[in-house]
Amino acid sequence: MVSRVAFGRGAFSVLVAALASILAGVPLAAQDVGPLKVGVFDADRVMAESQPGQQALALFNQLRDQRVSELQVQQDQINILQQQAISVPPGSPDAVRLNREVENSMLRLERLQQDVQQELGLRQNELTSEITEMIGEIIDVMGAEEGFTLIFNAVQSGLVYLDPTLDVTDEIIQRVNAMSAPAPL
User: Quick one: pLDDT at residue 35?
Assistant: First the structure.
Protein backbone atom coordinates (compact mmCIF):
# COMPACT_ATOMS: atom_id res chain seq x y z
CA MET A 1 0.00 0.00 0.00
CA VAL A 2 2.62 2.50 -1.01
CA SER A 3 0.00 5.03 -2.12
CA ARG A 4 -1.43 5.32 1.39
CA VAL A 5 2.06 5.99 2.72
CA ALA A 6 2.68 8.51 -0.05
CA PHE A 7 -0.37 10.48 1.12
CA GLY A 8 0.85 10.72 4.72
CA ARG A 9 2.96 13.56 6.01
CA GLY A 10 6.63 12.77 6.56
CA ALA A 11 6.44 9.67 4.44
CA PHE A 12 7.93 11.50 1.50
CA SER A 13 11.42 11.40 3.00
CA VAL A 14 11.15 7.61 3.32
CA LEU A 15 10.09 7.35 -0.33
CA VAL A 16 12.88 9.65 -1.47
CA ALA A 17 15.41 7.53 0.40
CA ALA A 18 13.98 4.39 -1.21
CA LEU A 19 14.08 6.02 -4.63
CA ALA A 20 17.66 7.20 -4.09
CA SER A 21 18.67 3.69 -3.10
CA ILE A 22 17.03 2.24 -6.18
CA LEU A 23 18.62 4.80 -8.49
CA ALA A 24 22.03 4.28 -6.87
CA GLY A 25 21.77 0.58 -7.51
CA VAL A 26 21.67 -0.33 -3.83
CA PRO A 27 19.02 -3.00 -3.27
CA LEU A 28 16.50 -2.25 -0.52
CA ALA A 29 16.13 -5.94 0.20
CA ALA A 30 17.68 -9.16 -0.97
CA GLN A 31 15.27 -9.30 -3.91
CA ASP A 32 16.18 -7.87 -7.30
CA VAL A 33 14.39 -4.62 -8.17
CA GLY A 34 12.90 -4.53 -11.68
CA PRO A 35 12.61 -1.50 -13.95
CA LEU A 36 11.70 1.69 -12.18
CA LYS A 37 8.41 3.31 -13.20
CA VAL A 38 7.51 6.54 -11.41
CA GLY A 39 4.35 8.58 -11.62
CA VAL A 40 3.39 11.90 -10.11
CA PHE A 41 -0.04 13.44 -9.71
CA ASP A 42 -1.33 16.82 -8.59
CA ALA A 43 -3.90 16.22 -5.83
CA ASP A 44 -5.11 19.83 -6.02
CA ARG A 45 -5.91 19.39 -9.72
CA VAL A 46 -7.72 16.14 -9.03
CA MET A 47 -9.86 17.90 -6.43
CA ALA A 48 -10.48 20.92 -8.66
CA GLU A 49 -11.14 19.10 -11.93
CA SER A 50 -12.87 15.87 -10.93
CA GLN A 51 -16.65 15.75 -10.63
CA PRO A 52 -16.70 14.75 -6.96
CA GLY A 53 -14.04 17.35 -6.17
CA GLN A 54 -16.07 20.07 -7.84
CA GLN A 55 -19.21 18.95 -5.98
CA ALA A 56 -17.34 18.99 -2.66
CA LEU A 57 -15.92 22.42 -3.43
CA ALA A 58 -19.38 23.78 -4.30
CA LEU A 59 -20.82 22.45 -1.03
CA PHE A 60 -17.90 23.86 0.93
CA ASN A 61 -18.17 27.27 -0.76
CA GLN A 62 -21.90 27.37 -0.06
CA LEU A 63 -21.32 26.70 3.64
CA ARG A 64 -18.42 29.17 3.78
CA ASP A 65 -20.49 31.91 2.13
CA GLN A 66 -23.34 31.30 4.56
CA ARG A 67 -21.01 31.49 7.57
CA VAL A 68 -19.24 34.58 6.23
CA SER A 69 -22.65 36.26 5.88
CA GLU A 70 -23.41 35.45 9.51
CA LEU A 71 -20.08 36.94 10.56
CA GLN A 72 -20.76 40.03 8.47
CA VAL A 73 -24.13 40.55 10.22
CA GLN A 74 -22.32 40.46 13.57
CA GLN A 75 -19.68 42.91 12.31
CA ASP A 76 -22.39 45.25 11.00
CA GLN A 77 -24.06 45.24 14.42
CA ILE A 78 -20.75 46.11 16.07
CA ASN A 79 -20.24 48.97 13.61
CA ILE A 80 -23.69 50.36 14.47
CA LEU A 81 -22.93 50.17 18.20
CA GLN A 82 -19.59 51.90 17.64
CA GLN A 83 -21.28 54.71 15.72
CA GLN A 84 -23.85 55.08 18.51
CA ALA A 85 -21.07 55.18 21.11
CA ILE A 86 -19.34 57.98 19.18
CA SER A 87 -22.52 60.03 18.99
CA VAL A 88 -23.17 60.17 22.77
CA PRO A 89 -21.24 62.37 25.19
CA PRO A 90 -18.04 60.68 26.42
CA GLY A 91 -18.27 59.38 29.99
CA SER A 92 -22.06 59.42 30.01
CA PRO A 93 -23.94 56.33 31.23
CA ASP A 94 -25.04 55.69 27.63
CA ALA A 95 -21.42 55.84 26.40
CA VAL A 96 -20.28 53.40 29.09
CA ARG A 97 -23.16 51.03 28.29
CA LEU A 98 -22.53 51.21 24.54
CA ASN A 99 -18.78 50.68 24.94
CA ARG A 100 -19.50 47.62 27.10
CA GLU A 101 -21.91 46.32 24.44
CA VAL A 102 -19.26 46.87 21.77
CA GLU A 103 -16.66 44.94 23.80
CA ASN A 104 -19.07 42.07 24.49
CA SER A 105 -20.14 41.97 20.86
CA MET A 106 -16.53 41.89 19.70
CA LEU A 107 -15.80 38.97 22.06
CA ARG A 108 -18.83 37.09 20.71
CA LEU A 109 -17.67 37.81 17.15
CA GLU A 110 -14.18 36.48 17.91
CA ARG A 111 -15.66 33.28 19.38
CA LEU A 112 -17.98 32.92 16.41
CA GLN A 113 -15.04 33.39 14.02
CA GLN A 114 -13.12 30.64 15.80
CA ASP A 115 -16.16 28.35 15.74
CA VAL A 116 -16.73 29.03 12.05
CA GLN A 117 -13.08 28.40 11.23
CA GLN A 118 -13.15 25.10 13.12
CA GLU A 119 -16.46 24.08 11.53
CA LEU A 120 -15.19 24.88 8.04
CA GLY A 121 -12.02 22.88 8.63
CA LEU A 122 -14.00 19.86 9.82
CA ARG A 123 -16.47 20.13 6.96
CA GLN A 124 -13.65 20.43 4.42
CA ASN A 125 -12.07 17.27 5.83
CA GLU A 126 -15.42 15.46 5.67
CA LEU A 127 -15.99 16.50 2.07
CA THR A 128 -12.51 15.58 0.87
CA SER A 129 -11.83 12.43 2.88
CA GLU A 130 -14.02 10.24 0.66
CA ILE A 131 -12.36 11.59 -2.48
CA THR A 132 -8.90 11.20 -0.94
CA GLU A 133 -9.71 7.60 -0.08
CA MET A 134 -10.96 7.04 -3.64
CA ILE A 135 -7.73 8.50 -5.02
CA GLY A 136 -5.73 6.16 -2.80
CA GLU A 137 -7.66 3.16 -4.10
CA ILE A 138 -7.20 4.32 -7.70
CA ILE A 139 -3.47 4.72 -7.15
CA ASP A 140 -3.25 1.21 -5.70
CA VAL A 141 -5.02 -0.21 -8.76
CA MET A 142 -3.03 1.92 -11.22
CA GLY A 143 0.23 0.94 -9.54
CA ALA A 144 -0.57 -2.74 -9.86
CA GLU A 145 -2.12 -2.60 -13.34
CA GLU A 146 0.49 -0.38 -14.94
CA GLY A 147 3.57 -1.57 -13.06
CA PHE A 148 4.44 1.62 -11.19
CA THR A 149 7.23 1.40 -8.64
CA LEU A 150 6.33 4.74 -7.04
CA ILE A 151 3.53 7.28 -7.44
CA PHE A 152 4.07 10.63 -5.72
CA ASN A 153 1.64 13.35 -4.74
CA ALA A 154 3.31 16.43 -6.25
CA VAL A 155 1.53 18.74 -3.80
CA GLN A 156 3.14 17.11 -0.76
CA SER A 157 6.38 15.89 -2.29
CA GLY A 158 8.34 19.10 -2.57
CA LEU A 159 9.16 18.39 -6.21
CA VAL A 160 10.61 21.41 -7.97
CA TYR A 161 10.75 19.89 -11.44
CA LEU A 162 8.62 17.25 -13.06
CA ASP A 163 9.02 15.70 -16.47
CA PRO A 164 5.49 16.04 -17.91
CA THR A 165 5.63 12.44 -19.12
CA LEU A 166 5.53 11.28 -15.49
CA ASP A 167 2.30 13.17 -14.72
CA VAL A 168 -0.61 10.76 -14.23
CA THR A 169 -3.06 13.40 -12.97
CA ASP A 170 -5.34 13.26 -16.03
CA GLU A 171 -5.67 9.49 -15.76
CA ILE A 172 -6.52 9.74 -12.05
CA ILE A 173 -9.15 12.41 -12.77
CA GLN A 174 -10.70 10.17 -15.42
CA ARG A 175 -10.77 7.21 -13.03
CA VAL A 176 -12.24 9.29 -10.18
CA ASN A 177 -14.97 10.55 -12.52
CA ALA A 178 -15.66 6.99 -13.71
CA MET A 179 -15.87 5.68 -10.14
CA SER A 180 -18.23 8.44 -9.05
CA ALA A 181 -20.48 8.38 -12.14
CA PRO A 182 -23.98 7.09 -11.44
CA ALA A 183 -24.59 3.56 -12.65
CA PRO A 184 -26.70 3.35 -15.82
CA LEU A 185 -30.28 2.16 -15.31
Answer: 79
Does position 149 have pLDDT exceeding 50, yes or no?
A: yes
For 17, other C-beta atoms within 10 Å of its C-beta total: 11
| Cα–Cα dist 83/27, whole Å | 73
The pLDDT of residue 28 is above 80: no
Beta bridge partners of 38: 150
**What amino acid is encoded at 106 in this protein?**
M
- CA atoms of 182 and 185, how far apart (whole Å): 9
Instruction: Give CB contacts under 8 A, 24+ apart, made by 25-34.
Output: 33/149, 34/149
Helix (H, G, I), strand (E, B) or coil at 127: helix
Q: How many residues does the chain have?
A: 185
Q: Is 153 helix (H, G, I), strand (E, B) or coil?
A: strand
Residue 155's pLDDT is 83
148: confidence class by pLDDT, cuts 50, 70, 90? very high
